[in-house]
Structures are given as C-alpha cells and as structure tokens.
Specification:
With 210 residues, this protein is mainly α. Helices cover 67% and strands 2% of the residues. The protein is built from seven helices and two strands; from the N terminus they run ααααααββα.
Length: 210
C-alpha cells in the first residue's frame, strides 16, 4: 500500500476490519431476504426461499475462495456466517404459534439443510455450530402430534354429528354395497382424512409421526 507520493503505508487490522464488514453485509443480506416473510408471518415461504443459502455458498467456493490466501479460511467463515443467520431465523420461527403444516415444513427443512450442506458443499453436520433448533426437534414433533390429535377429534366429531343427522332425517335409504351391506358416505370421508394425515407424515420423513 502506497500513497500518491510513494511513501509506504501500513493498513492496520485490515483482516479484522474486513471480517467485520463482511459480517455486517451478510446480516443485511439475510434481513433483506426474509423481512417480507416475517412481516406477513409467512414462515413456510421463508423456508422455501432459503435455497439462496446453498447457491451463494457454492458461488463463494467457486469464485471467491480462489482470490484469497488460504490462511484467511474464507470458505469456513462464510459457511458459519450463513449457518448462524439460519440458526437465528429458525429460533425466531419456533417462538411463534406455528400451525401443523409449518411445524412439519420446519422439521423437513432442518433435515434437508444438513443433507444439502453435506452433499453439495462437503460440510458435515459436526462442523455446523450451533445446532439448528438447539435439538428441539422432538418438542416440535410433540407439538405437531397434539395439534393433529385435537384436529382429528374435532373432524371425527363433526363427521359423526353430520352423519347421524343425515341418517335420522334421511329421505332415501342408505347406499347398499353389492354384497347387501348398507353404508354411509362419512366412512369414506373418515378414511380420506386419515390417509391425508399419513401422507403428510410420510413426506416429513418422521417415523414417530407415522
């Protein structure tokens, strides 16, 4: 570094200042990306938009890392910065009153996040600190199960009341199967409800939910 007149000049604490500026820039990047979703409490939308994390880290690895000395360890720095901002975002989410669908989406995001970090970027879960959700996955699973149980009781109660009323006030006889058995349409609806919940649990890749 030299001034116009050619006198040597030492830039003090350059690396520290560089990292501070980078930290601030990445914080603003996350705030800009997720602010609209936070304002609208669209947490599933926020999770869906998080793919930029992996895309940008790939860009850093390909385009930024070659331009820095190895001693800067620039890629690990970017990875941890992105990870910690992701950690903060998820912590904000779990403090909200999440519906069942968002809870499942959040659980699936965490699993996919670690898998993508490993397969696309070669970053193992052990290197990503702190742990996303602070290990609260089981608590979220329990919250989801409580919501689903309550909803199933509500749905089946409403279904039985409706079916009972239709049966008592019927104008036509119940449907008859080919083997001579009477049936009510609510039975079909009940199994559709159960099947839908099973499909949702299977998509979440959570054995306990199934």
């Amino acid at each position: 570094w030299r001034l116009a007149e050619g006198n040597p000049r030492t830039i003090k604490s350059y690396r520290v200042e560089f990292y501070e500026q980078l930290h601030q820039s990445l914080r603003e990047r996350f705030e800009e990306e997720f602010a609209p979703f936070k304002d609208n409490e669209d947490w599933q939308g926020a999770l869906d938009s998080a793919d930029f994390i992996f895309n940008e880290l790939e860009l850093v690895y390909d385009q930024v890392v070659p331009k820095f000395p190895k001693k800067y360890k620039i890629f690990p720095y970017f990875v941890l910065e992105y990870h910690r901002h992701t950690y903060d975002l998820l912590n904000q989410m779990v403090q909200q009153d999440l519906d069942a669908g968002t809870i499942l989406r959040l659980l699936r995001f965490v699993r996919d996040y670690y898998t993508t970090m490993s397969t696309r970027l070669g970053v193992t879960e052990e290197l990503l600190e702190p742990q996303l959700l602070d290990g609260q996955e089981q608590s979220l699973v329990d919250d989801y199960l409580k919501l689903v149980r309550r909803k199933l009781v509500e749905w089946t109660s409403n279904l039985m009341q409706s079916e009972s009323k239709d049966f008592v006030t019927r104008q036509d006889p119940p449907e008859m199967s080919p083997d001579g058995q009477f049936g009510l349409s609510g039975a079909v609806d009940l199994f559709q409800i159960i099947n839908q919940q099973i499909d949702v649990a299977a998509d979440a890749n959570q054995g306990k939910l199934l």
